[in-house]
Each structure stands twice: as C-alpha cells, then as structure tokens.
Amino acid sequence: xxxxxxxxxxxxxxxxxxxxxxxxxxxxxxxxxxxxxxxxxxxxxxxxxxxxxxxxxxxxxxxxxxxxxxxxxxxxxxxxxxxxxxxxxxxxxxxxxxxxxxxxxxxxxxxxxxxxxxxxxxxxxxxxxxxxxxxxxxxxxxxxxxxxxxxxxxxxxxxxxxxxxxxxxxxxxxxxxxxxxxxxxxxxxxxxxxxxxxxxxxxxxxxxxxxxxxxxxxxxxxxxxxxxxxxxxxxxxxxxxxxxxxxxxxxxxxxxxxxxxxxxxxxxxxxxxxxxxxxxxxxxxxxxxxxxxxxxxxxxxxxxxxxxxxxxxxxxxxxxxxxxxxxxxxxxxxxxxxxxxxxxxxxxxxxxxxxxxxxxxxxxxxxxxxxxxxxxxxxxxxxx
Length: 384
Known about the structure:
The protein has 13 helices and ten strands. By secondary structure, it is an alpha+beta fold. Strands 1, 2, 3, 4, 5, 6, 7, 8, 9 and 10 form a ten-stranded mixed β-sheet that branches. Strand 5 (192-195), helix 8 and strand 6 (214-219) form a beta-alpha-beta unit. The longest helix has 27 residues, at 348-374. The chain is elongated. The two termini are 21 Å apart.
C-alpha cells in the first residue's frame, strides 16, 4: 500500500511530536484518501486529522473558532493548517463527506496500541467492557437526528475498555435509536459487557450466551425469577441473594431459555439485582464488576467537558461520526502520552500543560532559528 507522506512539524522540544508518536506508527498504513475529481484535495486526510486533533486539544467550541485559529495562531497557521490555508466552506465539505474510513482505521489501530501501552486493571475479573449510550444535542436542520417534536438529538453507542480505561467501540444513531442491538456488535467473544437496566433483554441474554459473550446487567427488581438452584449467600456481606434462575415468564413468552445467575446486594440503602452468566466470580466480585460500569460515566463527563467533542462542527450523520472519531483518537493519544511521559492517567492538568508547552516551544524555536529557518524544521518531523 502506498504510504502517506507526513509534512507536519517537529522542533527542538518534542511535546507535540511525543503526543503524536503513536499516530505516526499507524498513519502510513491507513487507506489512502484520494480526490474524486482531477483537482488535488485542498485538505488532505492528514490535514483533516491534524485539524480535528487541534480542535479537541485546544478546546475550540465551533468550526468558526477553529478556522480563525488556523489563520491567526502562529503554531496552527504554520504547522496545522493546510498549505495555503483552508476556508470554512472547504473545511465543512471535508468534515461532512471525507475521511471516515481512514479515521475508523486509525481509531482501531490506536486502540490496539493503547492496550499494549497502558497497564491493565482488574485482570482477575476478566476482559470488561462497559456499554452505554450518550445523547448529543443536534440542531433542527439535522433532519436525520430524530428525537422528539421541536428537538433533535443523536445518540452515540459506546464500548469502554474498563481494564485499560479507554474507549474501544462506537456507533451512531438518531436520538431514538435502540441501545440493546449494539451490545452484540460491541462485544467480542470472551468479553464481559457491563450494562444498566435499560439493556435488560431476556432474548439478548440468551443470544449473548450462545455467542460466548458474557454480561453483567442490572435488572428490574420486580423481574420474575424462577429459581433453579440457590447459591450460598456469604455471612456479614452486602449480598443478600444469589441464585441460578430463569428470568421472565413462559406465559408472556419472555422467559430466558438458558439459566442465568442473579445476584442481589445492597449499597447505601439501595437494593441492586444483577443478572450475569459469570458463574466463575464470587457474588461480591459480581457486585464489584457492576460498580465498575460507572467508569464509562466518568469518561463521558471528562471527554465532553475538556475535549469539547459535542460542540458540533458537522451537521450530517457522516460528519458527526468523523468528529466523534476525531475526539476518541485525541483521547487515546492523550492517554498514551500521559502514561508514557508522566506515568499518570489522563488529566486536564496534563492537557493544559501540553498546550502551554506547544506555544512555548514554537516561541523558543523562533528565537533560535528565526522565521526563515524554522520552516526547515518541518522537514525533520517526518523522520521522528
């Protein structure tokens, strides 16, 4: 496969170069984005990718804000913007119609790299994936994003790798999109999906077991349980129930065909009932696994707040997926960067530090090399 050429900056201090190092390892093998006509692309895929990364790194809140930055900010103008600059209309055309295949490839490859680079937690509990949906406010012109009269929303369906604390799967629907069907596509054989009550489905519990995909899912307390065999409940424990059951009733044709384990426990005065096919775990471990579901909520909160991923710069479903993948790639790069440079998890402190270092380093490079010679530093970047 023909390699993508890299033209971006690398200068004396390597903050931005270190941040992008994992990207350079996967970028050359990404599918090639070619012009649909005879004219060359005003914005190559590499330009598009770097603009998306810069958008999230700098916490921009609109496409207009980003384009202005690409025109006026010294670093962005020389090292992020396409040669000759980019207009807002050309940027919009690129985001809404190009680059999805390439971004999907890079996201998947960076997930693999992040899994190797980041330490794994909870290995005694298995390969854990928290699954949840997140609503994205849309504008009325986004006709495809049905939600309710007078309101438009899209919904992202995410799989979050609990062991490595990184996003690993994404799909997109309108705001009314059903969440349960995505569980099977998010999970791989042997993985355990952790889900809230909205994912309770006796049909899907059976299908997941047939596919050798595991689950820990909170269920409604009133769900009918036909006990097959009770398990011993430990003394002096927050666990009060542990049995192998069939969920649902045959009269309503919603009873599970395959037996399921249900664990009941109390936390802060609230009773939880959790269905699972994990018979290898203790009841306390099942409760712990479900508690880890909240890690995806922590990710959503941080990701949306500090990388501005839901400030729309696209209106089409295609473009929104491009934007979200750009945000996920930004997070993966930051997760690897924080671990390898500081031995830490992702934090807004390190994001801000990276921004400041970039600005300081470009000023230092100008002072050292001057305006003319600094342009020669761009050529070094492809060699790092």
